[in-house]
Amino acid sequence: MRAELLSLLWLAITIGGYYALKPLYRRRPRWWTSPLLTVPVLLAVLGLVLGMNYPAYIRDTHWLVLMLGPATVAFALPIFRYRALIRAHWPALLAGVLGGSAMAVASAWGLATACGLDDTVRRSLLARSITTPLAMVVSADVGGVPELTALFVVITGVMGIALGELLLRYLPLRSALARGALFGVGAHGAGTAKAYDVGTEEGSVASLAMVLAGLLNVLLAPCLAGWLH
Amino acid sequence: MNTLHVRMRWLAWHRPLLARWAQVALIVLFWFACDQLVRRLHLPVPGSVLALALLLVLLLAGVVPAVGLRRGADWLLAEMLLFFIPAVMAVWEHLPLLRQDGLRILLVILLGTVLVMGTTALLVDLMFRWRQRHAR
Questions:
Q1: Do residues A205 and A180 touch, judged by C-beta distance below 8 A?
Q2: Other C-beta atoms lying within 10 Å of the C-beta of residue B79
Q3: For A128, which residue in chain B has the nearest alpha carbon?
Q4: Apex CA A15: angle with CA A12 and CA A25, to 5°?
Q5: Where are the domains of chain A?
Q6: Which of B91, B108, B129, B131 to probe the A interface (max A CBs under 10 A)?
Q7: Cα A225 versus chain centre, distance
Q8: Running DSSP on this structure, what letter comes out for residue B94?
Q9: Binding-face residues of B in 72-101 toward A, CB within 8 A
Q10: Which residues in chain B are contacts of A72 at CB distance < 8 A?
Q11: pLDDT tens digits, residue range A105-162?
């Protein structure tokens, strides 16, 4: 009975903490005020006080994780909304998404091998650049741990916001298309939000590039899994 | 089919909050149906991706009006952070691993992300400029 109450309490704290901390990001949009970082930190601090026990935590909160499925379906609307953009710029978008995704997989594999990380971690790193719901699917396909991948995706997002800003300053990019794709392929949803701060066109390109890169990874994951075996 | 269009549009315009939750429920049901289908038939694609593809086809064919799902879809996408925070808390189960490899993992992600962003942006920019020069 107490365990059940504790699980429900964790669900309430997760949702409550999220809605309480979200306005902070709206007022000061920095990488360290993102709910992606502040809510897990809040949960970790409470976990140290209340005694965190992951099975008890996830028992009721797994309903939230399940909602990632419908959230993936919702990506149909931005694709539909930007269909004119796809029609006009498909070669550039395709080149960026293909090249970026190939680089994401190759760099994860190469760098992880060079750093001597073990195989599970290396496989979990492969899908870190794409949006979480799809990354967890890909990770399971290529023999990674989906929960570790979710964590790596979050780290990529937080770093990506800061790195993207830096790169925009030094790379000689002439088109909004390139600036948007940089954020969408490199830092998924977190990057997309940042791209909307840069400009509306950058934002729409970013969200489109993010979805396309994610779908490409999901479709190619079985091939990749066979190849890496 | 036309009355459905009219009803969805009417609801979206006159009862925005109700429309949002109705749309979220519709998307969840659609996802659930596709997920079950994939499980029963052992299809090689994830249920959510099949649902995405089917919904896109329905939108492009004009069977489902985009305005009739916009609010629900926007809400799901905007609150996506909330949905994966619990997955992130699985860190707790992997603390020993992270204590041992954490710094190296951060380094891989940092360098990898710079490479991905650079490659993507430069390729898109090159393609874009090349097309502009050769378009006309």
A1: yes
A2: 17
A3: B109
A4: 145
A5: 2-62, 73-228
A6: B108
A7: 21
A8: G
A9: 72-74, 76-77, 79-94, 97, 101
A10: 31, 48-49, 51-52
A11: 999 999 999 999 989 999 999 999 998 888 988 998 899 998 899 889 988 988 898 8
Could you tell me the two tokens for A202?
A: 């950058």
DSSP codes joined into one string, chain A? -HHHHHHHHHHHHHHHHHHHHHHHHHHS--GGGSHHHHHHHHHHHHHHHHT--HHHHHHHHHHHHHTHHHHHHHTHHHHHHTHHHHHHHHHHHHHHHHHHHHHHHHHHHHHHHHTT--HHHHHHHTTTTS-HHHHHHHHHHTT--HHHHHHHHHHHHHHHHHHHHHHHHHS----HHHHHHHHHHHHHHHHHHHHHHH-HHHHHHHHHHHHHHHHHHHHHHHHHHHHH-
- Give the integer Cα–Cα distance in Å for B103 and A144: 19
CA-based nearest residue in chain A for residue B128: A92
- Å between A197 CA and nearest CA of chain B: 15
Structure tokens at B75: 């809400």
Q: Above 0.90 for ipTM, yes or no?
A: no
Report the C-alpha dihedral over residues A27, A156, A137, B84, rounded to 10 degrees: -30
